[in-house]
Design goal:
single chain, alpha+beta, Arc Repressor Mutant, subunit A, 3-stranded antiparallel β-sheet, 6 strands, elongated
């Protein structure tokens, strides 16, 4: 058995998991005995200690998670709080609003409402944990539908979507138009 290769594979799995992962799942994925996985984890921890790495592997019952050493807690907390409080761009707020009020919706729907490509903004909102996948539509291409996440509610201090402000009544905002102006607009919306 190549211990170095085994350790690197285990370390990669633990890192990619991002949360506690059961030792049995690691063992199954690598076709190893659980005691071999435990031995590799101890070797990885020794290597971290030897190289004065800021990382450690926390063993939680029958699971393991990558973590940082306690002495880096303040600087990590500071950096993550700065990132969390960074304001959203106007475009991101618009996309988030369209999703919040119409969910679940596809990226294509959001782009039709806004009139511009929104792929990078949708990706960014997913990464920030403000929106999440709500499944795929059963139409050609099987597009992903998005909805707001619990992180959205926490970030905006809401307990539920019913707390979103009401949208203005469309009839109040529209200017009265002549019938011939409306005909041209109706052609635009017909498919």
């Amino acid at each position: 058995m190549n211990w170095n290769s085994c350790e690197r594979q285990i370390e990669a799995i633990i890192f990619a998991a991002g949360e506690p992962i059961e030792l049995s799942r690691i063992a199954q994925a690598l076709d190893l005995e659980e005691n071999v996985v435990r031995h590799c984890i101890h070797r990885i921890r020794e290597r971290y200690l030897e190289h004065q790495s800021p990382f450690d592997l926390a063993i939680l019952d029958d699971a393991v998670q990558m973590c940082t050493l306690p002495e880096y807690g303040d600087v990590i907390r500071s950096a993550l709080e700065l990132r969390r409080t960074a304001p959203l761009s106007q475009a991101a707020l618009e996309v988030l609003s369209v999703i919040a009020y119409n969910q679940p919706v596809t990226r294509s729907f959001v782009e039709q409402v806004r009139g511009v490509d929104c792929s990078s903004i949708v990706r960014s909102l997913v990464e920030k944990g403000l929106i999440e996948e709500a499944g795929r539509l059963n139409i050609p291409g099987r597009p992903i539908a998005y909805r707001t996440s619990p992180g959205f509610l926490r970030s905006f201090g809401l307990t539920g979507l019913e707390q979103l402000p009401n949208l203005p009544d469309d009839a109040e905002e529209e200017d009265p138009q002549e019938p011939e102006q409306l005909e041209g607009q109706m052609d635009f919306f017909e498919l």
